[in-house]
From TrEMBL:
This is Arabinose-5-phosphate isomerase. It comes from Sphingobium scionense. PANTHER family: ARABINOSE 5-PHOSPHATE ISOMERASE KDSD (PTHR42745:SF1), PTHR42745. Belongs to the SIS family. GutQ/KpsF subfamily. Transmembrane segments: none annotated. The keyword ATP-binding does not apply. The record marks 14, 66, 107, 148 as: Catalytically relevant.
């Protein structure tokens, strides 16, 4: 938590694969980390390790010879070394400034040789470490989204303000508009509806394609006030609401358009197509 630099995670073989995963989880949850391959360390990659860093070394046996150059480097330049091993009398355990002792466990392999149970424990420790640091840092869903802008995870954390239409793209008419005015505005914006606002910009109604179809089935005058046909106090969401929550509301209410309000004042419009296009589900 107090390291000024990065967590340098290293290991060889199956422990190295776990170390890579541990590095990725730490990095994506607010703890800067790098994976250092032991085979490359002695060929120049030790240059990525600085006195501000801490090295986290994974080795079940604690005797992997490939780790030797990294241990020597840490000792020479007083870089904190944390060893994650199951052997108290091993090279890694004795060299480490802090030794995290893992339990001696029977491997699931029928020959009790292939790393299986031991690597599962390493993985669990890495996840626990990352989650503990997340809690200590107060790492939020917003922070998570900054590091995961792509893919399904990123889509589920997108806020309404990132996808909504804003400014002149938001269809709206004043409360004294006519049915014709609302129809023209709805056609211009092509979102399937228009907001109705009072003089202060407060959302007071919504007029949609469905309202228009119901209006034209009767003998209505196009100059009639839109207030006769609009849906009063329509459903709206806040700009900082999750887009996934907005989509849930649309499915729940069987609608395709939501207006976005900041303290009752209209600031945007969100169509279901925009949500689906962005991968929100």
């Amino acid at each position: 938590m107090n390291v000024r630099g990065r967590v340098i995670v290293t290991g060889i073989g199956k422990s190295g694969i776990v170390a890579r995963k541990m590095t990725a989880t730490l990095t994506s949850t607010g703890t800067p980390a790098l994976f250092l391959h032991p085979a490359d360390a002695g060929h120049g990659d030790l240059g990525m390790v600085t006195p501000d860093d801490v090295v986290l070394m994974l080795s079940h046996s604690g005797e992997s010879t490939e780790l030797g150059p990294i241990i020597q480097y840490c000792k020479r330049f007083a870089i904190p070394l944390i060893g994650l091993t199951a052997r108290t009398q091993s090279t890694v355990a004795e060299a480490a400034d802090i030794c995290i002792l893992m339990p001696e466990v029977r491997e699931a392999c029928p020959n009790m040789l292939a790393p299986t149970t031991s690597t599962t424990l390493q993985m669990a420790f890495g996840d626990a470490l990352a989650m503990s640091l997340m809690e200590m840092r107060g790492f939020s869903a917003d922070d998570f989204h900054k590091f995961h802008p792509m893919g399904r995870l990123g889509a589920q954390l997108v806020k309404v303000r990132e996808l909504m239409a804003a400014g002149a793209d938001v269809p709206k008419v004043p409360e004294d508009a006519s049915l014709l005015d609302a129809t023209i505005e709805m056609t211009r914006a092509r979102l399937g509806g228009t907001a109705v606002v009072d003089r202060g910009g407060k959302l007071i109604g919504a007029f949609t394609d469905g309202d228009l179809r119901r209006a034209v089935t009767g003998k209505q005058n196009l100059t009639d006030a839109i207030g006769r046909f609009m849906t009063a106090t329509p459903l709206a969401v806040a700009p900082d609401e999750l887009a996934s929550e907005a989509l849930r509301l649309m499915h729940e209410r069987n609608i395709t358009l939501l207006f976005v309000c900041d303290k009752d004042r209209l600031v945007g419009a969100l169509h279901m197509h925009d949500l689906l296009h962005a991968g929100v589900a």
